[in-house]
Amino acid sequence: MKYAIIADIHGNLEAFQVVLEDIRAQKATHIVCLGDVVGYNANPKECLQIVRDLNIPVVKGNHDEYCSSENHLEGFNPHAAEAVIWTRNQLSTDDKQWLCDLKYSRMAANFTMVHATLDAPERWGYVFDKLAAAASFPYQNTQMCFFGHTHVPVAFMRDTVVRGGTYSKFKVDSSKKYFINVGAVGQPRDNNPKAAYVIYDMDAQTIELRRLDYDIEAAQKKILAAGLPERLAERLAYGR
Ligand code: ZN
After folding, report:
1. Which residues pair with 32 in a beta bridge?
2. How far is the CA of 2 from the centre of ligand 1 (A)?
3. Is pLDDT at 75 greater than 90 in this prediction?
4. Cα 87 to Cα 66: distance, rounded to the nearest angstrom
5. What is the CA(9)–ligand 1 centre distance, in A?
6. Domain residue spans of the chain
7. Are the CB atoms for 91 and 45 separated by under 8 Å?
């Protein structure tokens, strides 16, 4: 079995389509999604429809939660909040209910899926370093867990201590636990603008980070045409 693990699509249809083509080319047998299907970019409804039609395991992201509710947006930066309000107006009641019903974490095959952290998934903490990863590991009952939220692909592993770093492809060591960020499809923030996702080959026991060029300009034009903040278009070109 070959799993494609995608996260943080954020309504970026151009990036999502290129990722889906690559998933087919890589002959992945399954797809799972770690949340934040919507928010930031100009095609939340189209991206959500594709995810719903795929009929795959999905967990809830903070943007999925905020875009499907009327919650106050105090914790959000102003550009993100503006995009949330815009996205709420694009989604149907049925779309919102579907997002609202997603769970914070769940299992697929032999691994765990979560958007933010396992210790308190509904608090949307950010795992950038070993310390934050160390807080999540005690709640991880599977060897492997995949997460998103930071939009920065990094892999943490634990044996006696927690280690972490960037990765491109590696073989899984059965004596270790892994907490792996798969990067973002629709708004990368690791200074690399290419769309990111992971292929987990369960037979070969390998994890591979895929990076793909897509039509950034087309996505930017749509963001501006929709009246969303300019900064959201600009950042796609820099991957931050
Ligand atoms: Zn996100």
Report:
1. 5
2. 24
3. no
4. 10
5. 8
6. 2-237
7. yes
Q: Given the structure tokens 């201590």, which residue do they identify?
A: 161
Residue 166 sits at the vertex; the CA angle it makes with 22 and 230, to the nearest 5 degrees, is 65
Cβ contacts of 123 within 8 Å, gap of 6 or more: 116, 117
Whether residue 89 is predicted with pLDDT greater than 90 in this model: the reply is: yes
Fold of domain 2-237: Purple Acid Phosphatase; chain A, domain 2 (3.60.21)
Please name the helix (run of DSSP H) or strand (run of DSSP E) that holds residue 177, with its range, or none.
Answer: strand 177-181
Whether residue 177 contacts residue 147, with contact meaning beta carbons closer than 8 Å, is answered with no
Are 232 and 79 spatial neighbours (Cβ–Cβ below 8 Å)? yes
CA of 104 to the centre of ligand 1 (A): 14
Angle among Cα 18, 20, 21 to the nearest 5 degrees reads 65
- With 0.85 as the threshold, say if the pTM is over it: yes
Is the pLDDT confidence value at 163 over 90?
Answer: yes
Q: Ligand 1: distance of its center to the CA of 175 in Å?
A: 31
Q: Among residues 185, 183, 182, 139, which one has the least CA distance to residue 158?
A: 139
Residue 73 has pLDDT above 90, yes or no: no
Centroid of ligand 1 to alpha carbon of 160 (angstroms): 31
Whether 1 has a pLDDT exceeding 90, the answer reads: yes
Neighbouring residues of the ion ligand 1, judged by CB less than 5 Å: 8, 36
Quote the ligand 1 centre to 186 CA distance (angstroms).
9
Measured in degrees and rounded to the nearest 5, phi and psi for residue 67 equal: -75, -20
Res. 74 pLDDT band, cuts 50 70 90: confident
Distance 75 CA to ligand 1 centre (A): 14
Q: Report the amino acid identity of residue 230.
A: E
